[in-house]
């Protein structure tokens, strides 16, 4: 015991005295003179070198002269034969890193060491040479280095290989010549040599995909000794996998078995590396993912913090793309919330937030509340961001989450943290209407005690926009006016503007607001006074309740509607003169930024920094852009702008993409063009659009782009007219036409890809906060249900996302995520269809063992007449063309999807054809007494036709075929044909679309040759009913009448005949009151 | 790349600082960042218990050994697991040189040796030697025994 005490005492004394206490650079440099002694004292020299190292490691620097002096002195130490001193000499030379003109002093000594019989001399000499020499010397020593790489002493080999890795950066062409030796070293029995050799070999060959692929194939079959090398190999393997699948290689994923095998390696490092490689495979399936997740889950409960960290970090990443795959780890993850290491805890929390289900939100939030108090701000920001995404995913939980955010808003925290919270609340208010009132009140509470001027002003601005629209705007006034009393001038000025907005927008508050504004006239800051004066005088200064002039409101609170940069330039260029500055003189043209600038300003503003429209901000920008163009300003409200569709391949001379802007009666294509040829300036850039495959569209206007310089994107527009409210679709071919300035204005063309306007372009992604309520409120009356077979698909998930993409609707309540391995899934979608029709869709998917996917689609919409519903349904089949409903049309269904595993390569799968036939428009409605009904319709609207049905199997078969074809209700049991009868009469009744009652008498006769003849008599309530049956017959006459422009009565007789191969001939006879009376036309179809 | 090896005493004074591929102007920032990280988290941590953090794409693994704290910073292939391998080599080499988890005094007494060890372990940002016995021989310019 006494001994222990003594030891402790010793240590205290020891600690007080440091061998380097009071060390001074000058003194040490003096001491370095011992290096010049003729009789070297190795021990003393080593001590001095240690001191020099200590100084250098403390960040001390030597002047050029000092360094040179020490370096020259050190070179003398090569004379000593003491091993310890020599080792120190090698180190200090590297640390001193002498300049190139001094290096020459030691190179001969080092070269000598490189050829020394003592292995370690060789190794160290190589490393020192690598550190201090440039490329010129490399050619001289290349021969020795090649030998060193294959040296049997692993220390020498490693030294040469690691030096090779460094030299590769400065002298790649020399190092690349060593690949044979390096290849040999890869087979070395020493683990570390193999590791270093593999690293160097890969770097030498990294640009040669085939060589890397060969390297990986050979090594994955052989043995790799060191775990470090194994990790490298796993990385290279996943690189090969990535590249091979990019080349469109299909079938089994190469090397997956190798990666999977590494999951059973004995070194944790290798297991983890393999697991991470698997999770990062693109288009990884849940089957591939499962073993990796399992080992990561084991790591979560490891005693080593590094393993826990690595595992949770990887799972966090997986949760972004495959949240369901990670849910199995949730229990282990929850225990990590209390982990000592805050990095691990934060990662665990954010992962749980991504993978949790709606039911678990409350419990999770309780746990997080305890956790938040003891982590640093940067971790808190991560958590706040995760909570915002969670809230948008589960809008029903906004109360819990909003409460949490408001609680942490009240606690201590720095600016960035507070800003993150405020931004999140603002985003939630914008996206979830129900959250608005409570959210605004939380923000009001916050500004009562907010130390950040920036946040206060931003919140006041936001309050001014959103507050007046709430049910009781008056409750916010107190908070705003408090700012006028309590805060600094900047915040006071903002508060005055916010008050004025309330005054202008809410008439009932106006008189009281004016009282408050008048008080601000005595503020001691001139900006505050000025603002108050301006508002008082513009918004009806007398304070009485008057309708504030729209122009005034627009002037005070509307957006400037022109680019601020342009305004700034115009103001700078304005020279004081008689003529006042006019806003009208400011150009409205948006100057596009060169890419380099855009990248610099890459960080997207979110929350308060973004324009108030929040998520629709791109639509806003587009809307402003389009309304600024006079040709398009009359098109009305912009309904939807699509995401850009690329019309050129990557890395071509000109990059063009198109954004489809949908208006009620118009479609505007915005072509974003970029010129990637530095020498060229393009002028008068237009797009020539061929709309021959888009029948309903008519080109209206084109807005060319005057000039398109290098690397500065520009836009050109083409507008089309289309029938109002109709979801017209079509295909457009495009050619880029321009003048190249360098070639003396030579006109040139560049072929672009085609694109299509598809039904989903007419669908806006608009979420609903509570799908069930919304669904019930629309009611089953407006529901349509259909079932579809989607054929064999890669996975259920892929099928779900393909259909979601096709419909272009917003997935609700997180139902776009498909649980791994599930056999069925229900997905809820919502959207707004053109014409402002709300549409909800429920998709139920089921998958069979053969990977056949079946889908049931239920649509409900606000509108009975719902074109929308019909369109959604047809979209469900693929891209169908919409047609006039009564036309006899045939559809080829083509399911188009992007296969994820093929890196987004578009693929097609041919489905069977189906037909919409006339009988689809016929309701089977029976009559109780056919004869009475027949007589009551009278012979005026009767038509009779005779048909030969050709040889048939039996009379019975012929009768039922015709009944099936007509889709009508047989009456009085006449569908039953007596056995062996030679003739039969069948009575049918039905209601045709348009609520037209139709009766049919069919008389059949059969000859001995089994030829069946049929006489068909139709009577209908309406003349138009004559169309019906005719469609099924082989010939038909249709009577049309109309009044032509100029009040000319026109009668038309159409006679159709169908030949064997469905060739249709039509004879058209027109009679009109006009003299140009009769025409005959034959249209073969 | 192994960006930095930093060893500090318990008060946060730097004992050894070796940077690779870190520009001069950023070194001071890294030094104060690491020391603060240690001050916040290393209290009460057992010898050689590893702590881990990440800052953007850079990983940090750090620990306590006796009276000194050791920090390793890496990026790309030197992620948390590679760094933990490297820090294990560093701590075992230091223990080997000092004979036990060092006090600051002991560490400074063996300063030259420790510098040599670090030179053998991490060289210009790459992990070179990982076996402590071999390192022990190499710093005396003795050839390794195991080949």
UniProtKB/TrEMBL annotation, chain A:
Keyword Transit peptide in the entry? The reply is: no
**Which topology term describes how it sits in the membrane?**
Peripheral membrane protein
GO biological process, any: protein secretion
Report the residue ranges that make up the Coatomer gamma subunit appendage Ig-like subdomain domain in this protein: 621-757
What keywords are annotated for this sequence in UniProt? Cytoplasm, Cytoplasmic vesicle, ER-Golgi transport, Golgi apparatus, Membrane, Protein transport, Repeat, Transport
Q: Which GO terms describe its molecular function?
A: structural molecule activity
Name the SUPFAM superfamilies on file.
ARM repeat (SSF48371), Clathrin adaptor appendage domain (SSF49348), Subdomain of clathrin and coatomer appendage domain (SSF55711)
Q: Which residues form the Clathrin/coatomer adaptor adaptin-like N-terminal domain?
A: 26-539
Which InterPro entries does the annotation name? ARM-like, ARM-type_fold, Clathrin/coatomer_adapt-like_N, Clathrin_app_Ig-like_sf, Coatomer/calthrin_app_sub_C, Coatomer_g_Cpla, Coatomer_gsu, Coatomer_gsu_app_Ig-like_dom
What is the purpose of this protein? Answer: The coatomer is a cytosolic protein complex that binds to dilysine motifs and reversibly associates with Golgi non-clathrin-coated vesicles, which further mediate biosynthetic protein transport from the ER, via the Golgi up to the trans Golgi network. Coatomer complex is required for budding from Golgi membranes, and is essential for the retrograde Golgi-to-ER transport of dilysine-tagged proteins.
Q: How does it assemble?
A: Oligomeric complex that consists of at least the alpha, beta, beta', gamma, delta, epsilon and zeta subunits.
Return the similarity comment. Answer: Belongs to the COPG family.
Name the UniProt record assigns to this protein: Coatomer/calthrin adaptor appendage, C-terminal subdomain-containing protein
Name its species: Artemisia annua
From TrEMBL, chain B:
Q: Which GO terms describe its biological process?
A: intra-Golgi vesicle-mediated transport; intracellular protein transport; retrograde vesicle-mediated transport, Golgi to endoplasmic reticulum
InterPro entries cross-referenced by the UniProt entry:
Coatomer_zeta, Longin-like_dom_sf
Q: Is Protein transport set as a keyword in this record?
A: yes
Residues forming coiled coils: none
| Keyword vocabulary terms for this entry | Cytoplasm, Cytoplasmic vesicle, ER-Golgi transport, Golgi apparatus, Membrane, Protein transport, Transport
Gene Ontology, cellular component aspect: COPI vesicle coat; Golgi membrane
Q: Does the keyword Iron-sulfur apply?
A: no
UniProt-annotated location(s):
Cytoplasm; Golgi apparatus membrane; Cytoplasmic vesicle, COPI-coated vesicle membrane
Specify the domain of life of the species encoding this protein: Eukaryota
User: Which family does the record claim for this protein?
Assistant: Belongs to the adaptor complexes small subunit family.
Q: What is this protein called?
A: Coatomer subunit zeta
Q: Which organism is it from?
A: Artemisia annua
């Amino acid at each position: 015991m006494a001994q222990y005490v003594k030891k402790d005492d010793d240590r205290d004394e020891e600690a007080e005295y440091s061998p380097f206490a009071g060390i001074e650079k000058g003194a040490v440099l003096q001491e370095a003179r011992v290096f010049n002694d003729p009789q070297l004292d190795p021990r003393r020299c080593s001590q001095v070198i240690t001191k020099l190292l200590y100084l250098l490691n403390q960040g001390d620097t030597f002047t050029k002269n000092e360094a040179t002096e020490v370096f020259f002195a050190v070179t003398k130490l090569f004379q000593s034969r003491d091993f310890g001193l020599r080792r120190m000499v090698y180190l200090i030379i590297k640390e001193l890193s002498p300049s190139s003109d001094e290096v020459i002093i030691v190179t001969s000594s080092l070269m000598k060491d490189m050829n020394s019989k003592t292995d370690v001399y060789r190794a160290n000499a190589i490393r020192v040479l690598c550190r201090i020499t440039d490329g010129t010397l490399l050619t001289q020593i290349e021969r020795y280095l090649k030998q060193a790489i294959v040296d049997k002493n692993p220390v020498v080999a490693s030294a040469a290989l690691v030096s090779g890795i460094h030299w590769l950066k400065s002298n790649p062409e020399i190092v690349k010549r060593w690949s044979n030796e390096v290849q040999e070293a890869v087979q070395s029995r020493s683990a570390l040599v193999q590791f270093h050799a593999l690293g160097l070999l890969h770097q030498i060959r990294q640009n040669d995909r085939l060589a890397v692929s060969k390297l990986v194939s050979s090594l994955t079959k052989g043995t790799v000794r060191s775990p470090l090398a194994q990790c490298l190999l796993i990385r290279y393997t996943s690189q090969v996998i990535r590249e091979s699948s990019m080349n469109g290689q299909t079938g089994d994923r190469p090397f997956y078995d190798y990666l999977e095998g590494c999951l059973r390696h004995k070194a944790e490092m290798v297991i983890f590396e393999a697991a991470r490689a698997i999770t990062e495979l693109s288009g990884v399936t849940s089957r591939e993912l499962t073993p990796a997740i399992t080992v990561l889950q084991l790591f979560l409960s490891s005693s080593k913090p590094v393993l826990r960290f690595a595992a949770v970090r990887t799972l966090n990443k997986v949760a972004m793309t495959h949240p369901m795959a990670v849910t199995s780890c949730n229990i282990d993850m929850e225990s990590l919330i209390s982990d000592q290491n805050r990095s691990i805890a934060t990662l665990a929390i954010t992962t749980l937030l991504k993978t949790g289900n709606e039911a678990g939100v409350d419990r999770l939030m309780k746990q997080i509340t305890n956790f938040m108090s003891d982590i640093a701000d940067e971790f808190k920001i991560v958590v706040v961001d995760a909570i915002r995404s969670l809230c948008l995913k589960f809008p029903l939980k906004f109360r819990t989450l909003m409460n949490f955010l408001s609680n942490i808003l009240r606690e201590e925290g720095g600016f960035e943290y507070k800003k993150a919270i405020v931004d999140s609340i603002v985003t939630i208010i914008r996206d979830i209407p129900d959250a608005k009132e409570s959210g605004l009140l939380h923000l009001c509470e916050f500004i009562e005690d907010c130390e950040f001027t920036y946040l206060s002003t931003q919140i006041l601005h936001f309050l001014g926009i959103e507050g007046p629209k709430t049910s009781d705007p008056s409750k916010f006034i107190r908070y705003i006016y408090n700012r006028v009393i309590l805060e600094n001038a900047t915040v006071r000025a903002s508060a005055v503007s916010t008050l004025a907005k309330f005054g202008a927008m809410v008439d009932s508050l106006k008189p009281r607001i004016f009282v408050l504004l008048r008080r601000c006239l005595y503020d001691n800051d001139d900006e505050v006074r000025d603002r108050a004066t301006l508002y008082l005088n513009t918004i009806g200064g007398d304070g009485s309740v008057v309708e504030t002039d729209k122009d005034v409101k627009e002037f005070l609170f509307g957006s400037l509607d022109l680019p601020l940069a342009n305004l700034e330039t115009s103001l700078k260029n304005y020279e004081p003169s008689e003529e006042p500055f006019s806003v009208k003189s400011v150009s409205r043209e948006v100057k596009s930024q060169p890419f380099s600038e855009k990248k610099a300003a890459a960080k997207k503003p979110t929350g308060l920094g973004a324009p108030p429209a929040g998520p629709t901000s791109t639509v806003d920008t587009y809307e402003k852009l389009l309304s600024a163009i006079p040709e398009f300003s009359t098109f009305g409200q912009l309904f939807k702008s699509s995401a850009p569709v690329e019309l050129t391949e990557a890395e071509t001379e000109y990059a063009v993409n198109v954004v489809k802007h949908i208006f009620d009666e118009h479609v505007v294509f915005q072509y974003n063009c970029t010129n990637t040829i530095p020498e060229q300036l393009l002028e008068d850039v237009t797009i020539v659009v061929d709309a021959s495959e888009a029948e309903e569209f008519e080109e209206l206007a084109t807005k060319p782009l005057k000039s398109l310089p290098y690397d500065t994107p520009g836009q050109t527009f083409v507008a089309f007219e289309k029938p109002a409210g109709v979801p017209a679709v079509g295909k457009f071919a495009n050619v880029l036409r321009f003048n190249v300035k360098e070639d003396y204005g030579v006109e040139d063309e560049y072929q672009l890809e085609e694109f299509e306007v598809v039904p989903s372009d007419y669908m806006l992604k608009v979420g609903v906060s509570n799908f069930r309520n919304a669904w019930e409120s629309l009611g089953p009356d407006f529901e349509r249900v259909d079932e579809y077979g989607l054929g064999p698909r890669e996975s259920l998930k892929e099928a779900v996302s393909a259909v979601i993409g096709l419909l272009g609707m917003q997935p609700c309540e997180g139902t776009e995520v498909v649980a791994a391995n599930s056999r069925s899934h229900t997905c809820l979608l919502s959207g707004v269809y053109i014409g402002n029709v709300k549409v909800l869709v429920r998709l139920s998917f089921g998958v069979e063992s053969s990977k056949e996917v079946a889908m049931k689609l239920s649509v409900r919409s606000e509108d009975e007449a719902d074109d929308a519903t019909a369109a959604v349904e047809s979209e469900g089949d693929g891209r169908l063309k919409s047609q006039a409903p009564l036309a006899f049309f045939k559809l080829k269904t083509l399911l188009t999807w992007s296969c994820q595993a093929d890196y987004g390569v578009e693929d097609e799968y041919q489905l069977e054809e189906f037909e919409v036939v006339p009988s689809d428009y016929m309701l089977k409605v029976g009559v109780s007494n056919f004869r009475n009904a027949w007589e009551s319709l009278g012979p005026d609207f009767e038509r009779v036709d005779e048909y030969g049905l050709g040889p048939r199997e039996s009379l019975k078969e012929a009768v039922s075929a015709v009944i099936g074809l007509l889709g009508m209700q047989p009456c009085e049991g006449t569908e039953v044909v007596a056995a062996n009868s030679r003739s039969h009469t069948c009575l049918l009744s039905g209601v045709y679309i348009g609520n037209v009652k139709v009766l049919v008498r069919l008389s059949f006769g059969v000859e001995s040759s089994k030829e069946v003849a049929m006489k068909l008599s139709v009577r209908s309530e309406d003349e138009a009913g004559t169309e019906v049956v005719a469609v099924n017959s082989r010939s038909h006459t249709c009577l049309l009448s109309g009044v032509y422009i100029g009040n000319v009565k026109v009668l038309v007789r159409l006679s159709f005949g169908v030949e064997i191969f469905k060739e249709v001939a039509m004879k058209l006879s027109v009679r009109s009151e006009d003299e140009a009376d009769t025409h005959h036309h034959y249209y073969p179809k | 790349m192994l960006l930095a090896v930093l060893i500090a005493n318990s008060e946060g004074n730097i004992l050894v600082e070796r940077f690779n591929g870190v520009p001069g102007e950023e070194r001071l920032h890294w030094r104060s960042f690491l020391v603060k990280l240690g001050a916040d988290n290393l209290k009460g941590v057992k010898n050689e218990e590893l702590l881990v953090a990440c800052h953007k794409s850079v990983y940090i693994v750090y620990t306590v050994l006796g009276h000194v704290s050791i920090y390793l910073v890496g990026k790309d292939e030197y992620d948390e697991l590679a760094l933990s391998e490297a820090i294990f080599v560093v701590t075992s080499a230091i223990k080997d040189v000092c004979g036990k988890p060092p006090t600051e005094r002991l560490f400074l007494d063996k300063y030259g040796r420790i510098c040599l060890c670090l030179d053998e372990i991490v060289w210009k940002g790459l992990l070179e030697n990982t076996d402590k016995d071999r390192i022990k021989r190499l710093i005396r310019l003795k050839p390794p025994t195991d080949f």
